[in-house]
């Protein structure tokens, strides 16, 4: 756009509310976190000692921090992968049927609205090792399910709960993406004798790749940040830290462990990581808009 | 259709129905669980309806959510509604006008302001929970609707999406408005607002869900149960040391906490899907 | 902008309404959920109705951990409650925060509220007293681990009396398994029952410095031969089906309710839940010990929580706190609480009253915990534990035990790791409180 309104004061007035809110509720606390990262404090905040980079040094010498990084990677990519794969499959199926497309969309879209904390509760009860129907069923076929004990199973549980919520979102984008593919392309391939599978892999999937990439980023961000409730209501990071993602760890060390310095140092590291992710996402979306 | 292969179509329906059923499975369990007595959960989770449905639902809605939460759920519903709508309208209002300023005006420090706002995308509230809590406490906003709402408005997602939407509007619009002698305020209300209807609707859905589903923040800043919200209260009902979880009441509350946002998404599905897919593309 | 200020004013106004009482109001943050929470509310109501000067406002804040941490966060923000219920694990953290807590003995003295420390069971108050014997917090709900057993299943397996020792637990479990049981026993609160109380019961230190009572430079000692032997046994039992693990807190108790497991070692305060949920005849017995290790076991240590008074309130409010704490300690209230919840009676008078009322006769097994606690004079190893960052140390121990149950580490290696990680947490606590 090249034409702008000439007013000089009005724009400041317009951005002012957001700036105030940002300053009070974001910059101020973030500044506090920044300061705390360089101090050691007791739980009640009665004494403070400046220790320079002490908290960061502790952090990067802590094997549990690296474990948490690994956990976060496994969790985020699993959620993104399964969320995208299942949603894509369902979207392709839905694109194929003529009757009931809207009904299917409605029946698949609603989990998007469910709070992560509630998703956690719902899947917990299904998988509760003592009373959960799925756990009892697995037990009967010889798989001993106990996510309180088994780290891998705990991870599977939180991935299922987090993915369940995300499928609907991905599904909407894929369905829209599929509907935007020109029929003529597919028809031409069909005339050439390409079967549905070949058509999907040769034509449809490549054309969906921008959507897929976009969803990959969005899903990773979701798994990173918006799954706090899922973990808090189900595993609380356990057992033995096997579901302790970086974001959960910040909360756990800061609020439960009352180690404000260590937790603040983690916040700073996270900020750097997310900053990087935001720039990537931003660049990507920006470029798409310019097309 | 390109070709007509009935088995393929049948297969598609089969997969979709299976998908729908699996997605709905947890809600089925919640629904039948909500009609059971507390004792029915001792051995295994019931998979069919019990006979306590009316009793449980009316107890939870009008009497008390559970033994750990002596407050009727309608009150929590009301709080959740106030919080969700406060966040939704607050966010839409301030982010629309700031996106408007950033896109349609040129002024000194514009990009600095832009980045200051956008930096909030980088740290969700979970990560800066302790200092944010202290700020809210200093401002005397613990146990208040403003404490529940205002910090949640600080995120820039909505500003970002409105910016995208405004940027895609043709520049001639402004030119035409200026030739007509319309000032920026009239332009905003007469042209921009009607043109962004779909986007506002989509934003409404997204923000309503975001606000409604807030969990950790209300959990931490409310100690007075007159300000409890529905989603956070689940945590209260689940943490009973040396006691038993009242799964039947938990299930009723879970369902009640799901109904409003699900209704909003399903009810505004068309606008929401259009707005969502367009805005983020 | 004016609109926003206006909105803020309106919202702010909303937050102020509804708090205009004439009586002095104090908040009490607690972690009592379920039926116990209802009983707590009833007791508070009784206090509030008994006079019109003070009003106590009970707030349920979730699990023990959440209650304590949110109170501390609130303290940092100067919004703390007057009274907070803190579990035994948080004791050292609270004690170390001298500027934040108002010691109960001091409070009672300052407000001239009647208070005699001798009224209380010493095995309970010992946990919450300083080295001079001054009570720093008010015991409220104390429990101790006991063994619950399914009488029906025992009968079916031909066992006439509950096991006294771990040797008998193993032998009985084999019979139970042979008679069709799915598991012998399960445990709640594994760190508390299977390590902390195990050590106390065998008069073995859990940590140096008299279990942490004597100073901050404490080192953990729970990777000694007794503890390793016990965990090794439990691991063997787990493999042969005698023991089944079901979670860190009381999440394993459904295994007992559903009659999968014939025994459950857990808090004496689970009694109320047992009565409500067990559809079979159950009994209560004392926590087993190893006959191979001791002839006569020491007392067990307490769990549960005590009430801490926080600084920063007005004189009038502290008067309210003192009056309320006094009310809570009266024999009638204590006896009611004890009988309803299964927590220990914390005063001698409450125990005697309960006995006189014939409660122990009509509710067999409810006195097991009291007798077990008072059977012997507490030693330095069975007085309690005072460890900084204990919340996280418990977490570390839980993780270590879980790595044993899942076969990822040997008992010795797991406990060694836990000691190492736990010591690091103790050092961190020590550094922060120099």
From TrEMBL, chain A:
GO cellular component: plasma membrane
Keyword Cell membrane among UniProt keywords: yes
Membrane-crossing residue ranges in chain numbering: 12-31, 73-94, 106-126, 154-176, 203-225, 264-285
Record CDD domains: TM_PBP2 (cd06261)
Membrane topology: Multi-pass membrane protein
Ranges of residues in domain ABC transmembrane type-1: 69-281
InterPro entries in UniProt: MetI-like, MetI-like_sf, UgpAE/MalFG_permease
Keyword Cytoplasm tagged: no
Keyword annotations of the record: Cell inner membrane, Cell membrane, Membrane, Transmembrane, Transmembrane helix, Transport
Subcellular location: Cell inner membrane; Cell membrane
Pfam families reported for this sequence: BPD_transp_1
Biological processes per GO annotation: transmembrane transport
Assembly: The complex is composed of two ATP-binding proteins (UgpC), two transmembrane proteins (UgpA and UgpE) and a solute-binding protein (UgpB).
UniProt similarity note: Belongs to the binding-protein-dependent transport system permease family. UgpAE subfamily.
Name this polypeptide is given: sn-glycerol-3-phosphate transport system permease protein UgpA
Organism: Marinomonas spartinae
TrEMBL record, chain B:
Membrane topology: Multi-pass membrane protein
UniProt KW keywords: Cell inner membrane, Cell membrane, Membrane, Transmembrane, Transmembrane helix, Transport
SUPFAM superfamilies to which the protein is assigned, alphabetical: MetI-like (SSF161098)
A Gene Ontology biological process term: transmembrane transport
TM ranges: 7-31, 82-105, 112-136, 148-166, 247-266
InterPro entries, alphabetized: MetI-like (IPR000515), MetI-like_sf (IPR035906)
CDD domains tied to this protein: TM_PBP2
GO cellular component, one term: plasma membrane
Location(s), subcellular: Cell inner membrane; Cell membrane
Top-level lineage group: Bacteria
ABC transmembrane type-1 domain residues: 77-268
Family (UniProt): Belongs to the binding-protein-dependent transport system permease family.
Oligomeric and partner information: The complex is composed of two ATP-binding proteins (UgpC), two transmembrane proteins (UgpA and UgpE) and a solute-binding protein (UgpB).
Known function: Part of the ABC transporter complex UgpBAEC involved in sn-glycerol-3-phosphate (G3P) import. Probably responsible for the translocation of the substrate across the membrane.
NCBIfam families cross-referenced by the UniProt entry: PRK10973.1
Protein name as it appears in the record: sn-glycerol-3-phosphate transport system permease protein UgpE
Organism, scientific name: Marinomonas spartinae
Organismal lineage: Bacteria, Pseudomonadati, Pseudomonadota, Gammaproteobacteria, Oceanospirillales
TrEMBL record, chain C:
Matches recorded under Pfam families: SBP_bac_8
Signal sequence, start to end: 1-22
PROSITE patterns, sorted: SBP_BACTERIAL_1 (PS01037)
A Gene Ontology cellular-component term: periplasmic space
Predominant place of localization: periplasm
Subcellular location: Periplasm
Keyword vocabulary terms for this entry: Periplasm, Signal, Transport
Family affiliation: Belongs to the bacterial solute-binding protein 1 family.
Matching NCBIfam families: PRK10974.1
PANTHER family, alphabetized: ARABINOSE-BINDING PROTEIN-RELATED, SN-GLYCEROL-3-PHOSPHATE-BINDING PERIPLASMIC PROTEIN UGPB
Identification of the protein by name: sn-glycerol-3-phosphate-binding periplasmic protein UgpB
